[in-house]
TrEMBL record:
Catalytic activity: a tetracycline + NADPH + O2 + H(+) = an 11a-hydroxytetracycline + NADP(+) + H2O
Keywords associated with the record: Cytoplasm, FAD, Flavoprotein, Monooxygenase, NADP, Nucleotide-binding, Oxidoreductase
GO molecular function annotations of the record: FAD binding; monooxygenase activity
Protein name from the UniProt record: Flavin-dependent monooxygenase
Subunit note: Monomer.
GO biological process terms on file: response to antibiotic
EC numbers, comma separated: 1.14.13.-
Domain FAD-binding positions: 6-327
Species per Swiss-Prot/TrEMBL record: Streptomyces luteoverticillatus
Pfam families, per database record: FAD_binding_3 (PF01494)
Amino-acid positions noted as binding NADPH in the UniProt annotation, renumbered to this chain: R43
Binding site for FAD: D50, R106, D298
Length: 379
């Protein structure tokens, strides 16, 4: 027997789905979120996010959570350093407190969203295996335990490999040609001082053709690095990531000749290297209006990391919630308004090229660069 559904059913308790749930709750609209993970603490929630004043913070304002957000901001983390592979500093910007991209831990941000929802809003341990259209804007969701739910409004906030997306689109994520390897250095200032000095108080970017390192300082004196390599997936498949020493050595060999304080982000990791292939949906991915269903975040517009992914997912959730509140008796009008605006802003963000930097060398010459973002920040 199908489980009774609230008027809005969200699949996925990531930042986009939870922001939507919170904004709906603020407007008195009942909602249920189904999440595959068995509990809020089932896995690590990733690293740092810079939450922008032009999208992510607007979403938090709509959710009424700006005070809670300010309480989790890590001061000083908007500092940014760009280094050459030999350790030469190309760009060094301190955090003067005036930037519009304060940094928080992804897990802390998710927690304040979860805490803002009534008990029972999120149903943990509900992994979706299929969805189907029943007609008249109604859809059925089937879970791995055999349970089902029928809803008049289904929102896919379930990421890159969304089970809801096939109701709207035949698009599937494609490998970008680049993968990241995650590493962590704990107690960095005392145990890894040279690396800590290189990273500085915020973010570090070092990039060459096909090889790059992005790192940032998390709370608790932890350095988190994303080591990017542009190689086909078969290349990574030849590395045994269950053998920590061998995998670490193989990845480090690709950075031979780099400054030791940079390669130490690989070789001195206090955790086993974790491989994360990067995927993207087609540019300007969109679909025709299908009654009773839509997507937010990576389910709708998965892109190569560019610092905007998490922010955009949250804004999607907030804007959809506001549209549903504005059209309480006309779901289709709300979805049409939301999707048209979402298609436009996601296409604009997909065209983002990277972070520009300028420096003046000792001879007075101006150097200019463009850093392509790869790691997790802002995803």
């Amino acid at each position: 027997m199908p489980t009774p559904a609230t008027p809005v059913t969200i699949i996925g308790a990531g930042l986009g789905g939870l922001t939507l749930a919170r904004v709906l709750h603020v407007h008195g609209i009942p909602v249920t979120v189904y999440e595959a993970e068995p509990s809020p603490d089932a896995r690590s929630q990733g690293g740092m996010l810079d939450i922008h004043d032009y999208n992510g913070q607007l979403a938090l304002q709509a959710a009424g959570l700006m005070d809670e957000f300010r309480a989790i901001v890590l001061e000083g983390r908007q500092a940014m350093r760009v280094l050459d592979r030999d350790g030469t500093v190309l760009f060094d910007k301190a955090d003067d407190g005036t930037g519009g991209r304060p940094e928080v831990q992804r897990g802390d941000l998710r927690r304040i969203l979860l805490d803002s929802l009534p008990d029972g809003t999120v149903r943990w341990g509900h992994k979706v295996i299929g969805t189907r259209t029943l007609g008249e804007g109604r859809h059925e969701v089937t879970f791995t335990d055999g349970g089902t739910v029928v809803t008049s409004l289904l929102v896919g906030a379930d990421g890159a490999w969304s089970r809801v997306r096939p109701l709207l689109s035949t698009a599937v994520p494609q490998y970008t040609g680049t993968s990241c390897v995650d590493t962590y250095l704990f107690d960095a200032d005392t145990r890894h001082p040279a690396v800590a000095k290189a990273v500085g108080g915020g973010s570090l970017i070092v990039t060459t053709s096909g090889r790059e390192i992005f790192a940032h300082r998390e709370k608790g004196d932890t350095l988190h690095a994303y080591v990017g390599l542009s190689e086909p997936q078969d290349w990574f498949a030849a590395i045994d990531f269950t053998d920590t020493a061998a995998a670490t050595a193989r990845i480090a060999a690709e950075f031979d000749g780099w400054a030791p304080e940079l390669t130490a982000l690989i070789t001195d990791s206090d955790t086993a290297p974790v491989l994360r292939p990067l995927y993207t949906l087609p540019d300007e991915h969109r679909w025709d209006r299908v009654p009773g269903v839509t997507l937010v975040g990576d389910a709708a517009h998965l892109a190569a990391p560019n610092g905007e992914g998490a922010n955009l997912a949250m804004l999607d959730g907030a804007e959809l919630g506001k549209a549903l509140a504005a059209y309480p008796d006309d779901i289709e009008a709300a979805l049409t308004e939301y999707e048209q605006a979402m298609f436009s802003r996601s296409a604009e963000v997909a065209a983002f090229e990277g972070v520009e930097f300028h420096r003046i060398d000792s001879d007075g010459n101006t150097a200019h660069g463009l850093i392509k973002m790869t790691g997790e920040k802002g995803r």
